[in-house]
């Protein structure tokens, strides 16, 4: 396209939604994605997503050493393929709490209260078995129960009930609190990313062009600060500039979207001056307000070799592969993070901890898993107080960011994780798990352990849950980076539709909220265009 109406920067969870809605409305759309297509079998087999992390289909952002986590580096992997995070995540479908969105509105995000966002969640959703005031059945995003449940996941759900938590069949319903099995973005035994749902429905339409392997450098503006085009390096390594007729929608995520804006001359005055970038718009809070969910594992050794370990090798791997390929059934249909809970550990009456339960001993980007068979209970705080920031390292668009995650810089976050670890240790010893678990590996095989010992475990083992947000804060105040209609303040024709606009983190996984944000952004764009045409 020589001049599309809209250029969508980033073909991830939100970018695919934007491309779908604008294309279906008859607009000429160009979608630019940095990574390759989502054509790896390990993307579409739900249980094999761990094989994608660390490949060319993800990018791992590395922070400066963080004092709050014993000067460790924070590693934050993000999707780099069509579908983005929805193509590489654990497919957990969580919206957060009603109070999250009421808080957004109270912070100046006019029109983002629960009564406004719930219709967008429902519009996006096609739920396999729920149809009520909370759930939709006609949207592009497929939401279902997984076809496989691991014995350790089942035992955890029973053990948590034995520890006093109620069973909850729907964390996205009236009440989030309780223990149960996650709803997932899967269908027919395979991953239901926004690329496999939203984008797949429009990818062959003549008014949509999809380009992969395209790394956006910056945005171009005229003297009136109106968007004129996007500069990017294409898949052949050539620098291209595409003119845009109406708007650019940035969907590059909380770590890349602020980088693109700063390279375009929008950002904190000191940061732009440091790199001799001519300031188009001074936006002092751009790149600030970084937030992320952190979790810390409690590991248990199983009595028998019943965990997931070894299922990706030899005859077992062949058996599982055939079962999935022929019948879309069996272990490979699992999202691995099958079960979890939301609990109030602070006594406020509102869950402040979420568990992600893994039926194996979990490692991460920066650490090998513990040897042998076991289970990982991973308490995560829901509403962090710690804040970080992102900055430019240089004016070279392909240089990495300077990234301060702020991990555990506030003691309240540490205290919340300590309470979460105590709950995890209690559940690990409840009868349903005690039948299967021989002993606790970490933080300690001892029954009694002090808060100081637990804090040491938290600071040495806390890691990201891959939910970076907040670096282009939405609001109605003069310091907000974007308006409540997601327009970048100070320029014309640029909106942001990704997790960077969240003023505060939602209480749960961020993929569903990001899809909701894109649904709302499409609504704003199309209503604006309609108003102009009238």
Write up this protein:
With 534 residues, the chain is of the alpha/beta class. The chain has a domain at 147-183 and 294-381 and 409-461: Cholesterol Oxidase, domain 2, CATH 3.30.410. Helices cover 26% and strands 20% of the residues. The chain has 14 helices and 26 strands. It has helices spanning 13-24, 41-44, 85-88, 98-106, 114-124, 151-162, 195-199, 257-263, 269-274, 314-327, 411-428, 431-434, 451-461, 511-533; strands spanning 6-9, 29-33, 58-62, 75-79, 125-127, 141-143, 178-181, 186-187, 190-191, 208-212, 215-221, 227-233, 239-243, 247-250, 266-267, 281-282, 294-295, 298-302, 339-343, 353-358, 374-381, 389-391, 402-404, 437-442, 463-464, 494-496. The strands form 9 sheets. Strands 7-19-20-21-18-24 form a 6-stranded antiparallel sheet. Strands 10-2-1-14-26 form a 5-stranded parallel sheet, with helices on one face. A hairpin with a 5-residue loop joins strand 12 (227-233) and strand 13 (239-243). The protein is globular. The chain starts with 5 loop residues before the first strand and ends with a helix. The model has no long low-confidence stretch (mean pLDDT 97).
Quick structural overview:
By secondary structure, the chain is of the alpha/beta class.
The biggest beta sheet is recorded as:
6 strands, antiparallel
Q: Helix content range of the residues, please? A: 25-40%
Strand arrangement across the biggest beta sheet: 7-19-20-21-18-24
What's the CATH topology label of the domain at 147-183 and 294-381 and 409-461?
Answer: Cholesterol Oxidase, domain 2
Compute the number of strand runs.
26
């Amino acid at each position: 396209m020589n001049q599309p109406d809209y250029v969508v920067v980033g073909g991830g969870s939100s970018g695919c939604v934007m491309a779908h809605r604008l294309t279906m409305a008859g607009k000429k759309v160009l979608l630019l994605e940095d990574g390759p297509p989502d054509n790896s079998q390990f993307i579409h087999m739900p249980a094999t997503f761990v094989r994608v992390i660390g490949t060319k289909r993800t990018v791992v952002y590395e922070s400066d050493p963080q004092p709050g986590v014993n000067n460790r580096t924070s590693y934050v992997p993000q999707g780099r393929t069509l579908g983005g995070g929805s193509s590489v995540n654990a497919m957990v479908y969580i919206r957060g709490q009603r109070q999250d969105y009421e808080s957004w509105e109270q912070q100046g995000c006019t029109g983002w209260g629960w009564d406004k966002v719930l219709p967008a969640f429902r519009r996006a959703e096609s739920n396999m078995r729920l149809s009520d005031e909370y759930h939709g059945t006609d949207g592009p995003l497929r939401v279902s129960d997984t076809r496989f449940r691991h014995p350790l996941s089942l035992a955890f759900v029973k053990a948590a009930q034995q520890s006093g938590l109620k069973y909850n069949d729907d964390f996205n319903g009236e009440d989030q609190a309780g223990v149960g099995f996650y709803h997932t973005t899967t269908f027919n035994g395979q991953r239901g990313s926004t690329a496999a749902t939203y984008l797949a429905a429009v990818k062959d339409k003549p008014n949509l062009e999809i380009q992969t392997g395209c790394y956006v450098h910056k945005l171009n503006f005229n003297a009136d600060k109106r968007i004129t085009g996007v500069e990017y390096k294409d898949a052949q390594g050539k620098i291209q500039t595409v003119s845009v007729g109406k708007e650019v929608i940035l969907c590059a995520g909380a770590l890349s979207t602020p980088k693109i804006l700063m390279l375009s001359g929008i950002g904190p005055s000191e940061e732009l001056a440091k790199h001799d970038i001519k300031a188009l718009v001074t936006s002092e809070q751009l790149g600030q307000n970084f937030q992320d969910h952190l979790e810390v594992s409690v590991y248990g050794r199983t009595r028998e070799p019943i965990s997931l370990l070894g299922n990706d090798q030899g005859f077992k791997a062949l058996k599982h592969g055939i079962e999935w390929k022929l019948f879309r059934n069996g272990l490979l249909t699992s999202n691995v993070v099958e079960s979890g809970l939301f609990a109030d550990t602070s006594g406020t009456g509102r869950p402040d901890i979420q568990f992600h339960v893994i039926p194996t001993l979990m490692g991460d980007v920066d650490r090998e898993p513990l040897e042998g068979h076991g289970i990982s209970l991973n308490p995560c705080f829901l509403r962090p107080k710690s804040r970080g920031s992102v900055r430019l390292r240089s004016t070279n668009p392909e240089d990495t960011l300077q990234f301060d995650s702020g991990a555990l810089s506030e003691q309240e976050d540490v205290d919340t994780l300590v309470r979460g670890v105590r709950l995890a240790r209690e559940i690990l010893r409840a009868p349903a798990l005690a039948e299967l678990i021989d002993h606790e590996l970490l933080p300690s095989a001892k029954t009694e352990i002090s808060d100081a010992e637990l804090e040491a475990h938290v600071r040495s083992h806390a890691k990201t849950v891959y939910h970076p947000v907040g670096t282009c804060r939405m609001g109605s105040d003069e310091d907000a980076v974007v308006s409540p209609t997601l327009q970048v303040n100070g320029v014309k024709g640029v909106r942001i539709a990704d997790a960077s606009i969240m003023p505060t983190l939602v209480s749960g996984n961020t993929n569903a909220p990001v899809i909701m944000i894109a649904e709302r952004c499409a609504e704003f764009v199309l209503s604006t265009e309609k108003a102009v045409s009238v």
